[in-house]
Amino acid sequence: MKILCLILLVAVLFVALTATYFIKKEQENSIGNKFLRLIKKFDAWQMMR
Question: In sequence order, which residues have a C-beta less than 8 Å from that of residue 36 and are 6 or more positions away?
Answer without folding.
Answer: none
